[in-house]
């Protein structure tokens, strides 16, 4: 990457007329080749904004007049090519205004595509969304090792809107193109080369040779296969589109996620004509932009940004020491090392330490780290059976089983061993910090750092305060969380904190429904139909029935209100070792091949959905009333990123407000009359209304 950074300092222009003034582009020319460097003002990453495109439009007119041998477009940002469109600039657009802006953007990229000399995009890092569409408008694409490409718009309830639907489906096998757009998955460097997205994949030191080869027309384009040719016909596209709709429907119905179906319709109806497809793309994008789904998903984007902003500043944490090499401890240690921290991990047994290193290696492979980056991450993570890292660490994270006596014993052993200023954080999910703080070596530098499993995939981390924690301690922990590419949710000490307090009723009510004779498949498929990423029965197995039981018992003893009773058979399962997926058997029998359902119920029981979902909304209201988190936006963001809670519905509070606060409260009262006081609405509903 050092070579890349050296190259990303373009020289002043040498043999071209002075380019028009620009805030976001820099131009240089050498050997008859013009280079435009995208360098968005006041930003660490490039985004494709209206200003970026307007400036590019003027620059293209200027470059065309100079008639160079070729035009090269690349990024001056070490972070990558371009992260996508500027969501701030289009989030508020509607109707004719959206159409007009999209038409302007199309015109700029069409102008780039039509230039009478070779145009070459050189991509390092990520080219996503609008950045990918900019690269697609060039004749050639040269990828630097580690480059990746994708259209994440589907995650915002949209599809590409600057010509990407046409250009990608014409460039590569249309089915592969559609899969990329429908799933939002990225194609990493070698995959992108195989598909034909890039014409060359080279290390930085060979970029100039590749540019000159493309400028001379000596670089060959990827040859498309027979299927790509066949899918140019409407009949073939209709057959493929039918299959795509069927697969999309299994994931989520059109009423919840209209964007995949709009994209399929667009390709099927207009995939044979550039002019028709681009015109229809603009109309479809503008219509989707006005949908409730897109507006909620765009809101989720801003919720993510708001959570991340809570971790601004420097943590002062370089060395992390993790006590406990179980599943959570191993994941915390591995992810911290991957993100650049020196890590020591301690356990009383050597076997878990070996498994922790293996887990770290697996995570590196899953995250597509290079061999060098994997080696460096593993070098930063050191098994420490003697606990020598305790004395050197800036942050000690305790991640041992949820036993008060065990945690207190560990805290006692840390007295006099931690260096001055070091922080002790507990990863507890069911114990109150108020019950642990007196055992901590330094009460003001003790707090909760509640990760979610698996840490390498789950974005949220709860930073949990208590009455005696210093503000500096909490600020440093939030900054640490942001520094390891996770989202800090600042919450107060409360039974289950925030996420588990809201998630627990979902899991516990599922156990009651099972006890009443409802099938686990029916319960899970009803939740999937609502939009949850995982049914509560499946989730209970994923979390671990033993953990679920601990959380339920903690809620029952800590909360002032009734909670669902735990069926006796659940305790018996845990005692028998049938604790869920990790044991091979829980509520589902994984060894026997009985996998949970993945498709939603087409006609789900509204009774089941309300019994699962409304108690979560009620718990959210309770948390707001008790100041567990600052506001509704942070609450919705935390629940979405901590549990995957139906993001297209905007979070539990957004859902409650959309459905109607009065209606939710009245429905809870009706459920309380039928099923007991656990459904009795929290007093906070009245003040919200």
UniProtKB/TrEMBL annotation:
CDD domains the UniProt entry points to: crotonase-like
Signal peptide: none
Catalytic activity: a (3S)-3-hydroxyacyl-CoA + NAD(+) = a 3-oxoacyl-CoA + NADH + H(+)
Segments forming domain 3-hydroxyacyl-CoA dehydrogenase NAD binding: 319-493
Ranges of biased composition (kind: Acidic residues): 1-14
E.C. no: 4.2.1.17
Keywords on record: Fatty acid metabolism, Lipid degradation, Lipid metabolism, Lyase, Multifunctional enzyme, NAD, Oxidoreductase
A GO term for molecular function: long-chain (3S)-3-hydroxyacyl-CoA dehydrogenase (NAD+) activity
Highest taxon of the lineage: Bacteria
Any one GO BP annotation for this protein: fatty acid beta-oxidation
Pathway where this protein functions: Lipid metabolism; fatty acid beta-oxidation
3-hydroxyacyl-CoA dehydrogenase C-terminal domain mapped to chain residues: 496-590
InterPro entries associated with the record: 3-OHacyl-CoA_DH_CS, 3-OHacyl-CoA_DH_NAD-bd, 3HC_DH_C, 6-PGluconate_DH-like_C_sf, ClpP/crotonase-like_dom_sf, Enoyl-CoA_hydra/iso, FA_oxidation_alpha_subunit, NAD(P)-bd_dom_sf
Chain positions covered by the region annotation Disordered: 1-20, 585-605
Pfam families assigned: 3HCDH, 3HCDH_N, ECH_1
Family: In the central section; belongs to the 3-hydroxyacyl-CoA dehydrogenase family.
The protein's name: enoyl-CoA hydratase
């Amino acid at each position: 990457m050092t070579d890349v950074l050296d190259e990303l300092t373009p020289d002043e222009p040498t043999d071209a007329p002075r380019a028009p003034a620009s805030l976001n582009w820099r131009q240089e020319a050498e050997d008859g080749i013009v280079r435009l460097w995208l360098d968005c003002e006041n930003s660490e990453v490039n985004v494709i904004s209206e200003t970026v495109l307007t400036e590019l439009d003027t620059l293209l007119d200027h470059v065309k007049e100079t008639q160079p041998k070729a035009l090269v477009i690349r990024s001056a940002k070490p972070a990558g090519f371009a992260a996508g469109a500027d969501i701030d600039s289009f989030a508020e657009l509607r109707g004719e205004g959206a159409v007009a802006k999209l038409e302007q953007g199309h015109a700029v990229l069409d102008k780039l595509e039509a230039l009478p000399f070779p145009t070459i995009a050189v991509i390092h890092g990520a080219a996503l969304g609008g950045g990918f569409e900019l690269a697609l408008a060039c004749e050639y694409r040269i990828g630097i090792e580690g480059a990746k490409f994708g259209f994440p718009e589907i995650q915002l309830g949209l599809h590409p809107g600057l010509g990407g639907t046409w250009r990608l489906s014409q460039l590569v096998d249309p089915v592969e193109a559609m899969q990329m757009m429908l799933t939002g998955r990225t194609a990493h460097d070698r995959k992108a080369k195989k598909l034909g997205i890039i014409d060359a994949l080279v290390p930085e030191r060979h970029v100039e040779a590749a540019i000159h080869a493309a400028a001379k027309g000596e670089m060959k384009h990827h040859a498309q296969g027979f299927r790509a040719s066949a899918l140019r016909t409407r009949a073939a596209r209709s057959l493929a589109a039918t299959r795509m709709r069927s697969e999309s429907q299994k994931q989520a119905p059109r009423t919840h996620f209209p964007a995949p179906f709009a994209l399929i319709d667009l390709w099927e109806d207009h995939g044979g004509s550039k002019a028709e497809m681009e015109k229809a793309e603009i109309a479809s994008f503008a219509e989707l932009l006005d949908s409730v789904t897109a507006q909620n998903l765009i809101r989720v984007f801003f919720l993510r940004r708001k959570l991340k902003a809570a971790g601004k500043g420097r943590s002062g944490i370089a060395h992390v020491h993790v006590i406990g090499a179980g599943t959570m401890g191993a994941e915390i240690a591995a992810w911290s090392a991957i993100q650049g921290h020196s890590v020591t991990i301690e356990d009383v047994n050597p076997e878990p330490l070996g498994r922790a290193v293996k887990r770290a290696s697996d995570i590196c492979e899953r995250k597509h780290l290079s061999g060098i980056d994997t080696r460096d991450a593993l070098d930063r993570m050191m098994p420490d059976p003697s606990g020598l890292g305790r004395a050197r660490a800036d942050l000690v994270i305790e991640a041992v089983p949820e036993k008060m006596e065990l945690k207190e014993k560990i805290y006692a052993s840390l007295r006099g061993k931690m260096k001055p200023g070091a922080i002790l954080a507990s990863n507890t999910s069911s114990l109150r910090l108020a019950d642990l703080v007196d055992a901590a070596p330094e009460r003001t530098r003790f707090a909760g750092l509640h990760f979610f499993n698996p840490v390498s995939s789950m974005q949220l981390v709860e930073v949990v305060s208590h009455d005696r924690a210093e503000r500096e301690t909490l600020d440093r922990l939030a900054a640490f969380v942001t520094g390891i590419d996770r989202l800090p949710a600042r919450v107060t000490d409360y039974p289950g904190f925030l996420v588990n307090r809201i998630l627990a009723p979902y899991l516990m009510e599922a156990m009651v429904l099972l006890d009443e004779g409802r099938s686990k498949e029916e319960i899970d498929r009803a939740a999937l139909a609502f939009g949850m990423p995982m049914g509560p029965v499946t989730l209970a197995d994923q979390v671990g029935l033993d953990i679920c039981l601990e959380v339920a018992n903690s809620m029952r003893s800590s909360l002032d209100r009734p909670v669902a009773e735990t069926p006796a058979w659940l305790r018996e399962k845990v005692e028998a070792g049938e604790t869920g997926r990790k044991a091979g058997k829980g509520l589902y029998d994984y060894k026997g091949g009985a996998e949970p359902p993945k498709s939603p119920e087409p006609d789900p029981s509204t009774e089941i959905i309300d019994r699962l979902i409304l108690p979560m909304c009620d718990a959210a209201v309770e948390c707001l009333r008790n100041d567990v988190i600052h506001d509704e936006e942070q609450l919705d963001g935390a629940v979405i990123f901590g549990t995957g809670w139906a993001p297209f519905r905007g979070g539990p509070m957004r859902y409650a407000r959309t459905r109607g606060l009065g209606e939710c409260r009245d429905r809870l009262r009706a459920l309380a009359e039928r099923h007991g006081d656990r459904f009795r609405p929290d007093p906070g509903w009245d003040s919200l209304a």
